[in-house]
Structures are given as structure tokens and as C-alpha cells.
Amino acid sequence: MSEYNIVLTCEAMTRRFGTTQVLAPLDLKIARGQIVGVVGSSGCGKSTFLNIAVGSLSPSSGRMLVSTLGAEHEVDGHGRDRGMVYQKYSLFPHLTALENVALGPMLNETSIPGRAFGWITGSWCHKRHEHLAKAEALLVKLGLCEALNRFPSELSGGMQQRVAIARALIMEPEVLLLDEPFGALDEETRDDARQLLRDLYAENMKAVRAGLLAPYTIIMVTHSLEESVSVGDRVIGFSKHWNWRDQGHESFPGATIVYDKAATREMAQAEELRKVVFAGRDLDPKMHCLFWNQVASGDVQGVLK
Amino acid sequence: MEVSVFSKTLKLIFTQRKPLTPKLGMFFSVLGLVLVFLVYTALAYSETNTIPPMPRFPLVPRFDRLFEGLKLLVFLDPQSGDHILWKDFLVSAPRLLIAISGTSLLCVTVGIYMGLYDYLRRMALPIMEVVEHIPANGMTVFFLALFHVTNPLFWGVMAFGICVAITKNVYLASKSVSDEHVFSAKTLGASPQEVTWYVVYPQIKPQIIEAVRQSIPPAIVFLMGTEWIVGSDGIGHRFMQLNRSGRTFMTFPYVMMLGVVGLLISYIFRKIVRLTCRWYESDTPPDFVDRFLLAMLNKIQNLFHRQNKKEANS
How much is the ipTM here? Predict the structure, then answer.
């Protein structure tokens, strides 16, 4: 596995809330350039996992590591190396689409005194101009040229989602986390959003073929099995139903990953997922966690081929 | 046909949560004012309209006396030789302005931070609960001992009276900013100060402006109360004098003028929200004043923008 560029690693990571154990010790590695769909029933710890990844929660034990510029560091709070797009997009309502996207570079590349006194020297104007141009280019790339100067309340759900993705992508995060990205969209807009993710994946493939680093690594929590198998290149399923008693636990240790395979983009896999993740049977997690075996045997298409 | 229109209108009026047509809405707005006018007229021209110890003076002045009082207020009062309204305004308005700006600055900052930091909320809430239940005019004696009859006395009473309301409103607004906005800003590399002043503050600016606007009427009440009790000048002191001399024909127009000024202040505050928070209520169409002000603002911004572009290019 070491030959792959691993961006996110979980090492025996658990999480509990009070006496309720939510996540059993998780071990997981996600390689650069992957688009991973995470599925599971409500309350199985998907969102907890995502919140730990973004830094809103800390693991109760174990750790999560993120590789930034080749150096691994433990996730401890929020950081600009992990972008997040929430279900309701969370665009700042007081900023236009352009300003929303330009906010990241502004915060990242300038300081409060720089902004306050940079007017005098003109350095701030120069930077601001640069940030707005960069944001505009990204929004145009995502097909939002008409929405540049509109406030979020004046945008449709699909447009808001693309602006939110642009706002996260402009920071060039190591991992982009999407929480139910299609949850609030109608069917037509959903197709556009799926296509957007496929386009990003195509860019990854292009970069890998050219011998470059894949620019986008995405973890996408979703309720839709069809989306998880059709958009990304890997599917992970969380479940509370697994054979924890056989593994030597005396009490319920929390949900774990019961499914981890390469996405086939076929509906048969969605059916398989339904049987494994939503069956409610106490399965052995190892039975369907075969992603890295598939990679080793060359059965995986995409950035890890 | 007419019966059907009438019954339809009645149904529209008495259906809950059903917006009226613009014409009907205007009718009811005017109706409210007309009712007040009628009640006033009835009171002013009734036979029992007198001040008990002074039967010569009507309690509610008739319209001729009302205009006479208004003339005395706005123009020169022959008795005192003053422009009463202007003189009182010059004394009370700066007191009000200083107290409200100072208190707002402090309370808005505290309120925003209370919504973001739990330790501050836990520290401040019990104090606020206590202060909220103390009538500000009851603190006059305390401030009198502290400052004697100087401006800080008036500032202190007003600040004491409005600080909790402003802080609480701003705190609730700050608390209502979703965690997701705060977390998103942090993933963009925002420091805690940047989250506060670039994400939370601009989002709750309309509520802040509204909280300050709402604090003005109670502040005026506290100012007038204090001026009435201990002051030697200002609006409250004038009211005390007019009250003692039974000159209600001057008190009434004075009160009405204060109402008009209050209305004007509210209007200005609404326009400030409209101009500085264009994203807020963006679905409400702008009226002609908004359009004029926005055009002016856009011109200034464009000038500024052009200057920036020039500097950036150079």
C-alpha cells in the first residue's frame, strides 16, 4: 500500500458520546485522487466520521492523519487542508458568489493588519484583485458565469452547491468532504452535480496519466446507494450490525466499516450494498472489505490502476 | 355582483395569515390613523376635558391651542425668549447619541463574543438576568452620587437601561449563526478573530442595527426621566416645567414632535440596513429612496473600485 499516495489515514479511531459508543476502532486509508462514496443507515456514524475528518470532533481514541505536501500530520481541529461542503451548502449569505469563493484566498494569504493598512501601500488592492480573478475563473469553469455577483439567496440549490464546491476547491484541499451533496437537489440538478464530480474525477485521471498528482480527493457521504456506486471509484459502507461479539467485545463497540470495494458503476453493486449495509445481519466486516485486495490484484480501474 | 365583491373582501380580511391586497392594506393603515385622530378630537372637544385643579385649562388641547403651542415650541417663546425645541434638542440629543453609541459599541462586542464563546455566555448571563430586573431610573441616585449632575450621570442611567436589551439581542443573533458557517470559515483558514468579524458580524449586522434602533425609545424614556428628576436642562426638564405650569397645549405638540422624530430615526435605520446589508431582504423590491441611495452608493463604490484597479494594475 505504501506505493500509493495515501492522503487520509485512520488508525484504530473510535468515537463515543457519553456512554454511547458510536464508532468502533476504524482503520482506513484513502489514496490521493479517489472519490469515495460513504453510505450507511441513519445513526451509523457516517456524519461522525465526516466531522472528525473536518476537525469539528476529535476521536475518543486512535487518530486520523492527513498528508499535506507529503508530510503526515494528525487531524486536530479545522484546517485549510480539508475542505467541507455541507448539505445546506453554508454559503455566507452576506457575500456574493464571487466573494464567497474569494474569501478563502483572502483569509489564507492576507492578515487583518494587512487588509486594514494595505490600502495605503496598494498591496491589498493587488491581492484582492488577484483573489477575485482566481475565484471568477473557478466559477466560470464550474458554469456559474451568470451567478458571479448574485447573493446566495438569489441562487438555485444546484448553483449554491456548485459555489460551495468552488469555495472549498479554491483552497486546493488535500481532501474535500461532501455531506449529502445531492440531498436537497431535484432530479435534474442532481444529474448536473453528479456530472460535476465525474468531471473532477476525469481531471484526476488526466493528471495521473500525465504523471502528476491527482488534484481532487473527495469523500462523499450519501444516502443514495446508486450515487455512491455511480459517481466515485470506491464505496465504503458503515453499519451497526456486525459480529462484534465474535471479535471479543463484551458490549457494543459502535458501528464499523462492513463494506469497502471499488465502485463498479453498475446497479448490481447497489443491490449488493443494500444486502450488506442495510440487511441488519451481524456480518464479518472482513468479508466485504476487499478494496486493497482488489487494488493488489489489479481489479481496480481509475486512479489506482 | 356588489354583494359578492363585499363578501369576498370580508372573507379576505377575516382569513388568518392571508395577505391583503395593496389597496386594502393602505386602507387599514390610514384607518388606524383616522381612528386615533377621531379619538383625540372627541377627547379634546368633550365637556369634561379639564385639569381638575385648574378648570380653565383643558387637559387635551383643542386644535387651535395645539398649533399655538407648536408655534411657541418651534419659533421663539415670548415668555422665555428661547427657541425651546432647538435649545432642548441641543442639550438632550448629544447625551442620547453618546450614551447609545458608547453602549452599543460595548454591548455589540460582548453580545457577539457571548454567542461564540461559552465561558463568556455563562459569565455574563446571570449578571444580565439581575441587571435586567433593576429599573434604570432607580439607579439615578447611585449615578448621582458618583457623577453629580453632569453628563456622565445621564449616560450612566441610559447605558444601564439599554445595555441588557442590546447585548441579549446581539447574543441571540450571534448564537443563531450556524456552526456550519463557523466551521466552513475555519476550513478556509480563518482565525477566531476573522470568524468573528468577517463571518459572524456581517451576517448579524441587520439584527445589530435593529437592536440599536429598538434601544432608542427606552433610552429616551430613561433620559427624560433622569432630566425630569435631577436635570436643570434638556427635554425631560422642559416636560417637568410644562407639567408644573399646566401648559398641556405645549406638551402635546412636543410629544407629537418626539413621535415624528422617532419615526424618522426608525426610517433612517431601515435605510441603513437596506444600504449596508443589500443581501438582507433582497426579495423585497426597493422603493424610490432605496434606488436613489443605492445609485449614489454604487457610484462611490465604482469610483473606489476604479481607483483600486488602477493601483492593482500599476
Answer: 0.90
